[in-house]
Amino acid sequence: SSNLLGSEDLWYREPDAGFARRLTALPEGEWTPVPRPMSPGLVYVEGSDPLSGRLVLIPDTAAVPLGRLYLTPSALMAGEPDWNAMGDQLCFTVRQPDGSSQIWRLSMSDTLAVQLTVGLSATPPTGPQIDRGPRWSPDGTAILMASNRGKLWGVWALSPLGEAQG
What pTM does this model have? Predict the structure, then answer.
């Protein structure tokens, strides 16, 4: 992701050959590309903010023209995507207007987004519950995330079904 030509677009760089190819040139920003394991595609966040846009899949980065599949609606305010090792599931963060954020999972078999954590706002002065930065474990049995649960920031392990353990 780079603003080399004035807007935040996706680029492909071939280090050995020393060339770069612009993948997107859209009016929206394209942020945080994540290559899909075991497949030629990638997912990215489209919108004005890399933490709250919509998730878009480019199934094949070598195709001309590039195809785009919208995985989430823009109203969901998604960001921080990460693939599991098989490339068949994504985890990501969804921000809420109250400042809270939750972790969601999306399966490529049905493209159904499922909320895994519940972001209940804590009473002031601690502020809203924030779950963010989800990353799949290498074996796919857990999603690690940062959270301010219990009024302290820490790393939590979340099962892909939604149960969290500090």
Answer: 0.88
